[in-house]
């Protein structure tokens, strides 16, 4: 299996190193062969070649079976022109690779309940997955200034039927192998694209009679995600709503440092990255939490390579280490505070 | 002072009755004269005249010094065509009256801390105000289906400089009389309208050197609102982001039943309504929480009539009643549970 490795910026570098270390151990244990090819992306690529997504990187990704990404961005590049900002590298990669389905699972680790701003009884039984459309909507619609004096700014939220159908199908399939409940989130009382979205969900739902479907407005969802997060199983929504709601939902877990993500398309290719950013303030200090990155690697084993057993081994190792009370400083709870590398040492102990 | 009274649907009727009762008491106590004129809106107006915002209602509003609104909508009207849905009455009223600034204060009542899904220490010191742009953006941009087979849906997020300037000015003015901190929320790494928004905030900030300004991305804000809500003072943002974030923030208070809102323009006219909806499931049962409605009336006294003392009297009366442990059933905490009318009886006792 060929894996493209894009560390990116800030703590992306460190957590990626640890993920590769874990994957090599998994390969040894289970007798697989993983081949890693590194590429530049984001600020690191801007510094090296003036382009946040160099063509060579895109080639590496296209020739790989899966992509691991660390994190991109940082204040260092806040003044570069907006068309070559580090984020453009990430957005470009998603779009070019056609990775239309962003999966963000949220579970509250029992051990980290003190880190969450939410009450224990609210988060105890949370096990939800946000499925966000990732290559359409207002992120990729026409965007311009117009009018004399350029004093009107316009962005366009556009979806066609096919784009909505494929993400909704994906969400139904995921719901079917989970608790069989799908919440589709929109703003149908205001947006035409939401009304079309709702129609398509209703049409497709006929094929999944075993999955319970509900429609919920995005504003109500923003409330209910905090008030009764345990009532959600799979939540499917368009790109921008998904961006906001998945970040909101991440607070259930207490720490961004625990949350993985997968970006998929219809075949088995995928991009796997932690939900957290590049955290330049703690970069290079062996303080970053590597668990989101290695849990993303576990998602890769599962979704791109169909290595369920191996994915499970990584996830269990993480849980065991947390059970022993270890954590990195970011989590902000009183535990046995250890560094990035030491955390992965512990995880590797459990793996073997 | 002439007040337009639009009860609307569901519990809107009941809570409005109570608000009028309180306002009459305030008028007596402080020797003012309030004149109330009732109008139809939302589902009630659809049923009566087939239009969620009849011209007569708009006339009443235009001839009044302020508007009180209960709530609109309900499943009863879920099948009416989208151009005459109950919500269209509300959106039309905001737009026709030019009420571009929606103010939603969020404070966590000490007495209701058990009702919040957030931990006590997280919400204890929260005192924030979301200022949402209310008459522009994707709510009012061009929206259509196109393509052969009508299989493309498009919504347009559009702002011009003037629309952004006036809401940002309003937010700075509010921050100046509060804790002097303004958080401007956008998605400048993706949207052109957000980049223009950010530029305008920076320009206007020069006039308010005493106000500290920060820019925050909408996704980060969705996290921080739950993680560290006490760090916010005034939060200003565009229409759709404001819809989502203000509903999210309402969970801090624990109950929607406590949250008022004001929708203002540059003169002293304003529309005042509770944040909660029409709650058809409990309508007519004397169970609705009337406090959000009367706190909205208090905002009217303050923002439209500049009757600070009177507004304060209503707010203090509410706090005193809560201090005695009374609450309506919606709040869901163990307290002295009383009905809609009884709650207002208690408030009136404190007023006199
Ligand atoms: C960096 C940014 C453009 C990106 C997004 O909004 O998609 C990020 O917030 C994310 O969620 O991955
Ligand atoms: C009813 C709906 C159109 C409205 C909105 O989105 O503005 C409501 O959610 C609100 O926040 O007042």
Automatic annotation (TrEMBL), chains A, B:
Cofactor(s) essential for the protein: Mn(2+); Mg(2+)
Positions of NAD(+) binding: 74-87, 277-289
Residues annotated as binding Mg(2+): 219, 243, 247
UniProt remark on cofactor binding: Binds 1 Mg(2+) or Mn(2+) ion per subunit.
SMART domains on file: Iso_dh
Pathway in which the depicted protein is active: Amino-acid biosynthesis; L-leucine biosynthesis; L-leucine from 3-methyl-2-oxobutanoate: step 3/4
EC number(s) per entry: 1.1.1.85
Gene3D superfamilies for the chain: Isopropylmalate Dehydrogenase (3.40.718.10)
Keywords of this entry: Amino-acid biosynthesis, Branched-chain amino acid biosynthesis, Cytoplasm, Leucine biosynthesis, Magnesium, Manganese, Metal-binding, NAD, Oxidoreductase
Keyword DNA-binding attributed: no
Family annotation (InterPro entries): IsoCit/isopropylmalate_DH_CS, IsoPropMal-DH-like_dom, Isopropylmalate_DH
Site feature location: Important for catalysis: 139, 187
A molecular-function term among this protein's GO annotations: 3-isopropylmalate dehydrogenase activity
Keyword match NAD: yes
PROSITE patterns: IDH_IMDH
Subcellular location field: Cytoplasm
Residues given in the record as substrate binding sites: 94, 104, 132, 219
Domain Isopropylmalate dehydrogenase-like: 2-347
Function: Catalyzes the oxidation of 3-carboxy-2-hydroxy-4-methylpentanoate (3-isopropylmalate) to 3-carboxy-4-methyl-2-oxopentanoate. The product decarboxylates to 4-methyl-2 oxopentanoate.
Family (UniProt): Belongs to the isocitrate and isopropylmalate dehydrogenases family. LeuB type 1 subfamily.
Protein's name in the database: 3-isopropylmalate dehydrogenase
Organism: Scopulibacillus daqui
Name of the gene: leuB
């Amino acid at each position: 299996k060929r894996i493209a490795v894009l560390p990116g910026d800030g703590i992306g570098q460190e957590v990626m190193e640890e993920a590769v270390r874990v994957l090599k151990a998994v390969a040894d244990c289970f007798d697989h062969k993983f081949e890693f090819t590194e590429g530049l992306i984001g600020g690191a690529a801007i510094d090296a070649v003036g382009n946040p997504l160099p063509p060579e990187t895109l080639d590496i990704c296209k020739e790989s079976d899966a992509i691991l990404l660390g994190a991109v961005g940082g204040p260092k590049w806040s003044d570069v022109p907006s068309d070559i900002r580090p984020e453009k590298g990430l957005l470009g990669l998603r779009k070019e690779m056609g990775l239309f389905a962003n999966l963000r699972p949220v579970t509250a680790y029992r051990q980290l309940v003190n880190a969450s701003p939410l009450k224990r009884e609210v988060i105890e039984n949370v096990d939800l997955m946000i499925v966000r459309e990732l290559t359409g909507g207002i992120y990729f619609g026409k965007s311009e200034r117009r009018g004399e004096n350029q004093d009107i700014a316009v962005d366009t939220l556009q979806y066609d039927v096919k784009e909505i159908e494929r993400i909704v199908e994906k969400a139904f399939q995921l719901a079917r192998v989970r608790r069989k409940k799908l919440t589709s989130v929109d703003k149908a009382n205001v947006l035409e694209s939401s009304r079309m979205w709702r129609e398509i969900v209703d049409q497709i739902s006929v094929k999944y009679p075993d999955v319970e479907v509900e429609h919920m407005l995005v504003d109500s969802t923003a409330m209910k995600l905090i008030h009764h997060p345990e009532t959600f199983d799979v939540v499917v929504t368009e790109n921008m709503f998904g961006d906001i709601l998945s970040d909101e939902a991440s607070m259930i877990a207490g720490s961004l440092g625990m949350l993985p993500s997968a970006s998929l398309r219809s075949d088995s290719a995928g991009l796997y990255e932690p939900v957290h950013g590049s955290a330049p303030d703690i970069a290079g200090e062996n303080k970053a939490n590597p668990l989101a990155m290695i849990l993303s690697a576990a998602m890769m084993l599962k979704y791109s390579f169909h290595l369920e057993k191996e994915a499970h081994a990584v996830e269990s190792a993480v849980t065991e280490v947390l059970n022993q009370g270890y954590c990195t400083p970011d989590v902000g709870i009183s535990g046995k505070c250890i560094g990035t590398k030491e955390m992965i040492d512990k995880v590797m102990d459990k793996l073997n």
